[in-house]
Specification:
4 helices, 2 strands
């Protein structure tokens, strides 16, 4: 069986071959297709089911888009978030000793 080629002469890989080349399952490849993160060539003429094929260029572009570089935030430039909480108390100091003396001078309840 001869391999399909694109008009540019690139080989066209089946979904199973592409998933194997990318080191992922066929189901995960189809999720990437549905999310439009990987492009494909529809070589079929059917209306119900697409005949998806992938070129080496499309696979390479997908891999480039998937690369990420995690850079930790520099602790010296990170400013702490200030949290402001509304309060219902009144500002000012309370003299508890004066309150105790006030209560001590009153008659006890019967």
């Amino acid at each position: 069986m001869t391999r399909e080629t694109s008009p540019e002469g690139e080989p066209l890989y089946t979904p199973a071959e592409t998933a194997q080349r990318l080191g992922m399952s066929l189901a995960l490849l189809m999720e990437h297709v549905r999310a439009a993160t990987i492009r494909y060539v529809d070589t079929g003429a059917g209306k119900l089911r697409k005949r998806r094929r992938y070129t080496p260029y499309m696979i390479a572009q997908f891999l480039l888009k998937q690369k990420t570089k995690e850079v930790p935030a520099c602790p010296s430039t990170k400013t702490p978030d200030l949290h402001f909480t509304p309060t219902i108390s009144k500002p000012g100091a309370v003299d508890f000793a004066a309150l105790q003396k006030l209560k001590a001078g009153k008659k006890p309840k019967p």
